[in-house]
């Protein structure tokens, strides 16, 4: 089934359509995904600003996140870029962040 997804522009970025969000899952664990909260986004953006945030592939993340998706157990976060979830296992950010 195809879903049309309305991109609703927000000051901070894009909002995912609830129908789309309901069918997305983590490519590694198959857990459902939900939108990351503001606290999680702030934590990630602080690590990006400090130059310490890397994805599973070991690549540095340099662009701030306006939105992200997370697993219910909070172990993985997937970036959303311009309203598009990046659901590649190597693009995941593992939590908790190492200090």
From TrEMBL:
It comes from Fibrobacter succinogenes (strain ATCC 19169 / S85). This is Uncharacterized protein. SUPFAM superfamilies: Trm112p-like. InterPro entries: Trm112-like. Pfam families: Trm112p.
